[in-house]
Amino acid sequence: MNHAYRYGYLQATACPEAIKFIHKHTSHIVSILLEDTKDICDRGQSCIDNSLWSAIQIVKDELENTTGEFNVLYVLGHLFDIKNYHYHSTDGKCLERHSYIGATFGCGGGFALLAMYLNHLLSSNSQFPTSIDLLYQLLGGIHLHTKFCLCGDMYMIAETVMEHVLSLNDEEEPTEADLVSIEGLRDLLRQICMKIPSLLSLFFPFWRKLTLQLVSSQSLEVQLFGWEEIKEFAMENKITCHLPVEYIVSGSGSSFINGRYKLDLSSVKKGVCMTLRDPVYRRIVATDDADVNAAGKTFTLFRCIMRSGNKWWFISEADEEQPGTDRDIDYYQHDSAREHLPPSSGWKRTRRKKEDCKGITPPPTLEACNLLFQEKDQKNVVAKWEDEVIKILFSDSTRHLDVVNRSKALLNVIGQDRNFEDVALHLDTTSSTSKFPHLIVIKNLLEVNLEFVLADRQDENHQNTSNNNRDIMSLLKPVIKHVQSEEVLGCMNFKYIDELLLVLFRTYIQLFPQFVQDFFVFWRKFILVPPLLVQW
Fold it and tell me: Which of these three, 208, 240, 272, is where a domain ends?
């Protein structure tokens, strides 16, 4: 490898035989070098390291002056793949070796060359790699070696990869391995976004488009993966797209608590909802600060799981040795379990058993500043995406049990800020036809809306309960009309009628007690229909 690189690239006149050898054998040689080398002596290991160095130089030269005869991206992906045994040996140098690969490639503008090369392949309709696993390996290398990669190069590479993934030909359905790689690719892109927040403006639209492509697939396995992605995107979007970069804490009786608390990006780099972690904000005070009560201390604004299972927000002084434990000094707390972000008001002093309050009256107020990500016309864009998701979910083609059984979790996330007027209209127009949505989806829709209204009734600040009741009534009418329709009774799947009727009964009892008598009249007529008597 070393000799081929020397005679193929370092001589004034390149040796054709050396170039031919490189194009034909480099990929195989690198694969061998990165395999099991546990019995290699120190001298042999040094030879391997030198050969890998030569391979990296070859890759950089080929990225700059590619002839199309050498599959340079596959070699680079293999070099970046952390799963190779070469990076997992027992001599304790695995991370050092992988870092060496990244540093060698990054020095001299390797990542800039990769960015330009990928962009050239995409813009010229050349042979862009179709392997999702390869793209995952390349992005993984970038993520692990970000200190050697400029933000502009990282941005261009991530943008190119996202654009290509969305343009992949749908003729060949993704395999199970592809789906795993897509999930890993999405996680890597999100983590890169936490290093370059401006990339979020590309990442969230990419994720939305990808989910719709997945659920429109002919493969059930791909569809199910797509529905899970939709649920996770909806959860993540609800938090990240409203995530402030910092909070200003003011008005506290404990004046040293006041100040700017900045978002700790490491707390959200893998996602807020998907890792069940909440954003953490910190205020690190300099040791020479004029306020002696604050100098050299770190104050934290964070959410903690209590023994009851509820999550409360705290403003605390973090313990130097064990931050985030009982050794922290808690000053103020907010007991609302429904607040995903730090509330602006309603804070109170923290009181522990057998201890006096550390916080002094009055408690502080919080002001959110500078959102981490603000997409242009974001509310309407996300609403249109949700409309597409709802349209697919409530279409007559969505019939498979594995899909409809997932509908409740999805509706729980999307339905919090929706009134479902469009769904009510669709149900009304299809109530007497076979195009009416699956009864499990309908049952889940009613159940989720019922839970929302009951939860809102417990919230003293909620003002829209009456409107939500009317929205549910607009859903109830076409459902009852459907189950009474003679046109569909003969082909209705009665297996799910019991569950649906139970939800209908609960909804009337808890939200519309004045109409319960009407519901019982419907129920008596309904169970006397001949097809039902046969089924029951």
Answer: 240
What are the tokens at 219? Answer: 């493969």
Mean pLDDT of 10-20: 75
- 338 and 411 fall within a common domain: no
> What is the average per-residue pLDDT within 464-481?
72
**Residue 135 resides in a domain:** yes
Confirm whether 529 is domain-assigned: yes
The predicted structure's pLDDT at residue 138 = 87
Return the DSSP state at 88.
S
Q: Which segments of 257-327 are extended strands (E)? A: 259-263, 281-284, 298-305, 311-317
Q: Are residues 350 and 428 in the same domain?
A: no
Contact 468, 421 (CB under 8 A): no
Nearest alpha carbon to residue 132 among 77, 93, 53, 58: 77
H-type alpha helices, 270-406: 378-393, 401-404
Angle between helix 42-64 and 110-123 (nearest 10): 40
With beta carbons less than 8 A apart as the criterion, state whether 242 and 387 touch: no
375-402 pLDDT, tens digit each: 677 778 888 898 899 988 888 766 788 8
pLDDT of residue 488: 59
Q: What amino acid is encoded at 87 in this protein?
A: Y
What's the DSSP call for residue 92?
S
Report whether pLDDT(500) > 50: yes
pLDDT digits (tens, 9 = 90+) for 253-289: 988 999 999 998 777 765 554 444 678 899 998 888 8
| Average pLDDT along the chain | 80
Domain residue limits at 301: 244-371
Q: What integer pLDDT is reported at residue 364 of this predicted model?
A: 95
The answer to whether 158 touches 192, Cβ cutoff 8 Å, is yes
Q: 206 and 248, same structural domain? A: no
Q: Distance between CA 468 and CA 511 in Å, rounded?
A: 10
With beta carbons less than 8 A apart as the criterion, state whether 214 and 186 touch: no
| Judgement on whether residues 45 and 165 belong to the same structural domain of the protein | yes
Token pair listed for 146: 């970000």
Max Cα separation, the chain? 96
Task: Name 444's Cβ contacts closer than 8 Å, sequence gap at least 6.
Answer: 404, 407, 408, 411
Lookup result for tokens 């952390």: 82
Full-prediction pTM beyond 0.90?
no
The tens digit of pLDDT for each residue in 181-233 reads: 888 899 888 888 877 878 888 898 999 999 999 998 888 898 999 999 998 88
Per residue in 83-100, is it b (16+ CB within 10 Å) or e — as a string? ebebbeeeeeebeebbbe
Q: Report the domain count for the chain.
A: 3
Name the DSSP class of 315: E
* Region at 370 (left for phi over 0; alpha for psi -120 to 50; beta for the rest): left
Task: Confirm if 502 and 444 have CB atoms less than 8 A apart.
Answer: no
